[in-house]
Structures are given as C-alpha cells and as structure tokens.
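The record is given unchanged here:
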Amino acid sequence: MKALAVRLDALKSLDVDALILPAPTLPAPGSNGPMPSLDDIDNLTRQASREGIRVLLTLHAPSATADLSGLARFWLNRGVAGLHIATASGTSPEQTLAIVQAVRKQASGALGQRIIVSDLDLAPSASEQPDRPAARRAARPSVAPLSQLQIDKRAATLPAIDAAGLRPLLARNAAQPGLLLDLSLPATSPDSHPPLAEPLAAIALVTQPAALIDSAANLVLEPTVEQPQSVADEPAKPAPAPPPQPPPGTYLPYVPYVPPPKPKPVEAPKPKLVDPLTDWYRQLAALHHDNTVLRTGTPVFLDFDAQNALVWVTKPAKANVLTPPVVVVCNLSAAPVQLSLAEAMKKLDLHGFFLRKLLRSDQGMGAQDIDAVTVPAFGVYIGELRR
C-alpha cells in the first residue's frame, strides 16, 4: 500500500482512474482474532481520492452460497470506492447473481457513488452450444448482471494469443458495454519485455472505453519524491549585527587577504532512463484520451487472420475532415507483414488513400499507402484514413 501511495502521480500519468487491490484479511466473524492495521489502506484511499483515483477492493467468495454483505458493509463504511466480487470456481451465474445482489444492496445504502465489479460468466452461452437440444437451451434463464462492470477473462482460455482467437472475442465485447477485457500475460521476470506487450497494450487501451492494466505488466513507475523547501518559502532570517567599530585613532593589526574558496563545479543531473514499455502505455493513454474517434467511435474488426494481424477500423458517427476514421494494425506474428486495406475500406464505404500516422511502436516515420501497410514483427501502427 505504501509503495502505491508514492506512485499515484505515475499512475495518473497513465490515465489510471481506479485501482483494484486485494482486501486485507480480516478475522472470521465471531472470533477473537486480532485486527490487522488498516492505516495503510486508509491513507491510500484518502491520497488516491485527492488525485481523482478510486480504490476498489477484491472480495473472494469462498463458496457458491457465501454471504459477503457484512464484509462489504465494513469496507464501504471505511470509504473504499467499490468492490470487485470474485466467485469460487464452479459457481453458476444464478449463484453469482445472488452474491452480487447482496453486495449491491449494501452499496446502494452507502454514501456517494460506489462501483461493483464482477467476473463475467465463463460458461458458454446457449447460442454457443449447438449440440444442446432446443428445449434445454430455451429453459436456461437469462441472467442480467447487477454489477456496473464485468471483467472478461475469456482471453486466458484461448489456446494461443493470435488474431483468429482474439478477433471474434473483441467483436462480441464491442457490442456489450460494461465489459473490461483482461489481456494479462503470464507473470515474467521484472526485467523482461514480452514480445506481445505492445500489441496487447494497444488492444486493451484503444478498443474500449475502459481497460485493465495488469500489475505484472513490468511497468516502471517512479515514486514521487517530495521536493525540499525552496529558499523563497523559508522564513527570512534577521540580518547579522555589524561588528563593533574601534574608537577613532586606534590602529588595528594587519590582516593578510585570504581569497575565498573556489566554488565547486555544478554537474548537470543525469537524465532518467525511460522504460520503453511504460512510455508506450503513456502514449496510448494520451492518444485515447485526446482522440474523439477512438473514445466514442464504433470499432469494426477486419479479417486478416491468415497473416495473424489484428486490424480494426474505428468509425465515427459522422466522418469528416476533423474526425476521420482511425485504423489500428497489430501484428501478432514474429515476422513483418504487409497488408492491403483498400478492398476492406471499400466494403465499409470508407474513402481514403493513405494512413496518416498517429502512433506506432517502431521508429518508422511517415504515412502509409492503404494498398501496402507494413508493420514490423509484434508491431503496432495507428493512423487516420485520409485522402
């Protein structure tokens, strides 16, 4: 908690507006176990609130019939902005609904706006089970979630992170508001840089209004160093009293002149090394924040699975010179790809001849012709469709 409290400025630079943290372990109800110190979580909640960052805590339901209402009331009364409900494996959607409903009831009675987040039902829906009889499919009731947001972890069940698996998943999520796609990679060593880090960051931060940033993403977040008190802020010291003057006619002994010591040379501070992956996250967050089309447009995913490239076009409500469509190309393969987007743009009734660069993960420069968009291995290219 203390490590996060001194890195709130760095998190704010990534456009982070909420933190989902594990809740501290409390003694079981009715036991006489000692209470853990909650000063750190209280201080973090207050400091994050001043920075405009909400703090949510994860509550784990140990069983399918667990009642988390008492635990939820305890944390909501301590001022957390919301709760993430993680249910046990094998919990049905109906049982999850009952658990979330009890927590949501406590949140509705708390002061201010509180957010309830739950995990998406990973069981396949009725439309995804063609082998089930129609009567049994019709008998399954539709469960409407009571949580404001749901975390979609279906990407973790894919056999491989490729365009063929991600494209239909992202297309379904684009049509369902309130979903947070979890694209967390397996934890790696702190100094490693996974090859798919840049494409997955672009997919998470550009395709949807909200995104999850995994704590194991190897981002370098510098702590905020408290600035020392400047000279202007220090209180003025009284001037020293002048030395007493000898009476007239008094001769003082000769004192040889001693030159003052030479000032030490001032060395310029060495610039801090910028972590490339952290800087890439910052650029994506700034682009998503500043570009109206990416924030409010509708993504349309294109089929380039054969080249293992994930490509989508974000269409504005009304395309014009100020809000042109934005094309995102993510190469998920270990070799460079060259794609022709002209036919796909024609089918979408979009007009343009080249892509004006907004952001790219490599050091290349300049616009690209839509007939020959080249992206390096595990690279990302984001550009506006222009003519």
In short: The radius of gyration is 29 Å. Residues 93-108 form the longest helix (16 residues).
